[in-house]
Design goal:
The chain contains 7 helices and 10 strands. It has about 220 residues and is an alpha/beta fold. Helix 2 packs across helix 5 and helix 6 runs parallel beside helix 7. The longest helix has 24 residues.
Length: about 220
């Protein structure tokens, strides 16, 4: 199997992209896990003309053309975990999308930690929706190219589009959040540009997405 790492490079992230690239190389060198090939695609959006959704969708299209079986979305300011590929190996035969625990560090520091209070390992979409979105899932996850290509990111959304994508993955595929760590989210390096958003804007948008899916599930449960 082949895996493509997709990284949009937006405004303000040029200086940290090299560290992101190196982390992917180091992880693949340590172990490629179930993958015979690991490719890292940087989608250049340094002018901010595309936005994250369109940049990721371009990456998905490139991955399909290249015959990649799996994808991993890694932002340019984040770092791949050295054990990411070996850790996902036990899940690739049973699941369509795999998340790990939210692990973070402040930019300029070298000590990472798991986010306090977050949801642990689960296969339940109801549990994902039962906690605030910043305590459940993040963008860094493995997903089969076929599933990602059937969904795509909503290019009309400038904020919260990531969580809307997750919800559609959980609705359409076999998904799991595991106790593993696949990447480290480096905080304090927000992208800039015309389609960027701050943390509060993201939270507001993601909570709207979560509330919408809670209502959908409640309606489906109430049907005779």
């Amino acid at each position: 199997m082949k895996c493509m790492i997709i990284t949009p490079l937006g405004p303000g992230h040029e200086s940290v992209a090299a560290e992101c690239r190196q982390s992917v190389r180091a992880a693949a060198a340590a172990s490629s896990g179930p993958f015979t090939d690991v490719f890292h695609l940087i989608v250049d959006d340094r002018q901010g003309a595309l936005g994250r959704s369109a940049a990721r969708n371009q990456g998905i299209a490139r991955a399909r053309e290249a015959g990649a079986d799996w994808l991993f979305f890694l932002d340019a300011d984040d770092l791949m975990s050295p054990a990411a590929f070996s850790a996902v190996q036990r899940y690739t035969s049973e699941y369509d999308a795999v998340w790990g625990m939210i692990c973070e560090m402040s930019y300029g520091h070298d000590r990472s930690q798991l986010r306090a209070g977050q949801l642990g390992s689960t296969e339940s979409f109801h549990e994902i929706l039962s906690v605030p979105p910043f305590l459940s899932l993040q963008i860094g996850h493995f997903v089969k190219t076929a599933l990602a290509g059937s969904i795509l990111f909503n290019e009309d959304m400038d904020c919260g589009e990531d969580f809307e994508f997750y919800c559609r993955e959980w609705s359409a595929g076999r998904c799991i959040k595991t106790s593993d760590v696949f990447f480290v989210n480096r905080r304090g390096l927000h992208s800039t540009g015309p389609r960027s958003a701050d943390g509060q804007q993201w939270l507001n948008a993601a909570e709207r997405v979560v509330n919408n899916y809670r209502q959908k599930l409640a309606t489906a449960t109430d049907r005779p």
